[in-house]
Amino acid sequence: MSFFISDALAEGGAAAAGAPSATGQIVMLLGFLVIFYFLLWRPQAKRQKEAKNLIESLSKGDEVVFAGGLLGRINKLEGDFAVVEINDNMTVKIQKAAVIANLPKGTLKSL
Fold first, then answer.
1. Are 38 and 52 in contact (CB under 8 A)?
2. Does 37 fall in a domain?
3. Are residues 27 and 46 in the same domain?
4. Residue 11 lies in domain
5. Could you report the per-residue pLDDT of 6-60, keeping only the tens digit for each?
């Protein structure tokens, strides 16, 4: 605990205006790095991995929700794009990255 209190203050002497010890600075730096990892970097990496897996798992016939909130069924996959049927006579071409959720089969008919 001596890295929190300088030796001069612990002995009751005059207040010493000095920098904290090197071990105290290292402990604080490591603490901030651990907090940064668990609160920011790890959850973001997990979300990116889930989004990548969703996009890679898309196939013809999947019912999806895409970024604008529209629902549709995938008719065809073309590289980074998907042709989505919104209703019986309307199809649109969207980027696969715009897909935010894959719905269970039969969801569109129940709406």
1. no
2. yes
3. yes
4. 7-55
5. 655 555 555 455 556 889 899 999 999 999 999 999 999 999 999 999 999 999 9
